[in-house]
Structure formats: C-alpha cells, structure tokens
Write a sequence for this structure.
C-alpha cells in the first residue's frame, strides 16, 4: 500500500485484529455482489469504503423513483439509469481506488460458473428465491463463501455459508428449493427503509471479517433482526445430511 492508502485505511490498520496484513488482504480481494438494490447498496458502499480491491456488481434493473427510499447508492438524478452504472458512479465518488466491474444483467448459471473462480466472497443481495438458489449452487460448486441477506417489511435475516466447512449447512439446507415457500416482494409488502441498511451493512461486515481473517463469521447460524423492537435473535442451523446441493460435495471430498 502507498502512503495515501495507509492514511485512508488507517482506522482499520490500527485494529490489532486487522492491521496491515488484514487490510492488504482486503485490498487484494475480489467480491461479487448480486443485486444493487436495498441490500447491495449499503453493502457495496461499506466494502468500497473499506478498500476492497475489486467489486463486481450484477443487476439487470434500472433506478426507479420507488427505489430511492432505501437504495442509498442511487440518486434522483440517476432515475432511469442502469443500477450497476449508478452504483459505479457512487462508488467512484467515495473511493476511486476501487475497481468496479458493472454487469447489467441477471446472472445465468454459466455466468456464475465463469465468475466465481475469480472471486473471493459472494454476497447474495437479490430479492427472489430462484436467484438465491442459483447463487448457492454455484458457491457450493466452486467452494466460495456466500454471505446471504434478506429484508422485507420490518424483518431481516443474514447468514454465511461456506462449503469448505463440511459440517456447516448451505442455503438449500435452510430453505429447500421447491418447497411451498411464499415469495414476498417489497413492491407489494413494503419494507422499512433502514432495515435494508442494517442487513446490508451486516453483510459487508461479515465479508470483511472473512477477507481479513478475523472474528467469527455467521457460519451455521441465522441472525434474525426485528426492526419493530430493534432486537436480534441468533439461531443455530444444522446441515442437512441429505441435501442435494452440499451433501454430495462432502461425499466427493471424502472420495
């Protein structure tokens, strides 16, 4: 790191748990953020401010007036602009030291297969189960840590999955694909504006802990947040030994 970077990230470097070595790992990291909405915006801002070297942001939508209540990377002037382009502008203004790869698209299975070998951590900031399960399958396949968040109405949740830890669950273990799980969207159910900031910021925090090699990420735990009472609840989540996504990975590793 040069002198300007040492000064910019000095408050991290002063932390014994991070220091120069941890900040260097953050600076050399490549993080994929799936979704530039309510969760992706605060997550991207904090990862950029913390000095993550490269952020790849994928989202196929455009900025809409209704987004501005909570999607803090976007501005009124950018209504109609691609969200990833708007996010790139916001990140460049905050920290031009960060490289941003903007993907104005919904990622396919092939896209994920091509991207994941190059990234260190994946953040799922999407708003639908189909994307969450596709990202989870890719992360398990490529053995990449997945930081998954969700927020609706006043309720938020976050967990961290990593198939390199064979005794820990994947996203499918928690929310099996194909089960009758209701899909709720903020467009019809509403969302408390600061809630997305709470969960998105926690996603950034978990990502930075993984990159810096410090703290205890939420492996095998689901952290729930109630915006009405500002209360947190942490639940241990077991691995499903019959999970069709991650159980076979463990079996292959054993072979």
């Amino acid at each position: 790191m040069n002198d300007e970077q040492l000064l910019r990230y000095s408050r991290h470097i002063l932390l014994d748990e991070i220091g120069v070595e941890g900040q260097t790992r953050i600076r050399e990291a490549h993080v994929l953020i799936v979704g530039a909405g309510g969760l992706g915006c605060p997550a991207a801002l904090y990862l950029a401010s913390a000095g993550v070297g490269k952020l790849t942001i994928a989202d196929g939508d455009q900025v809409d007036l209704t987004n501005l209540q909570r999607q803090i990377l976007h501005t009124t002037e950018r209504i109609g602009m691609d969200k990833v382009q708007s996010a790139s502008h916001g990140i460049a203004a905050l920290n031009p030291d960060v490289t941003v790869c903007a993907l104005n698209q919904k990622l396919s299975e092939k896209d994920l297969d091509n991207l994941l070998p190059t990234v260190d951590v994946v953040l799922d900031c999407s708003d639908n189960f189909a994307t969450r399960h596709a990202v989870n399958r890719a992360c398990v396949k490529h053995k990449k840590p997945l930081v998954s968040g969700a927020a609706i109405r006043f309720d938020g949740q976050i967990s961290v999955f990593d198939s390199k830890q064979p005794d820990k669950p994947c996203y499918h273990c928690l929310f099996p694909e194909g089960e009758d799980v209701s899909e709720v969207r903020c467009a019809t159910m509403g969302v408390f504006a600061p809630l997305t900031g709470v969960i998105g910021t926690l996603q950034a925090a978990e990502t930075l802990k993984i990159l810096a090699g410090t703290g205890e990420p939420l492996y095998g735990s689901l952290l729930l947040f109630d915006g009405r009472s500002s209360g947190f609840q942490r639940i241990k989540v077991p691995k499903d030994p019959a999970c069709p996504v991650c159980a076979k990975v463990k079996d292959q590793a054993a072979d």
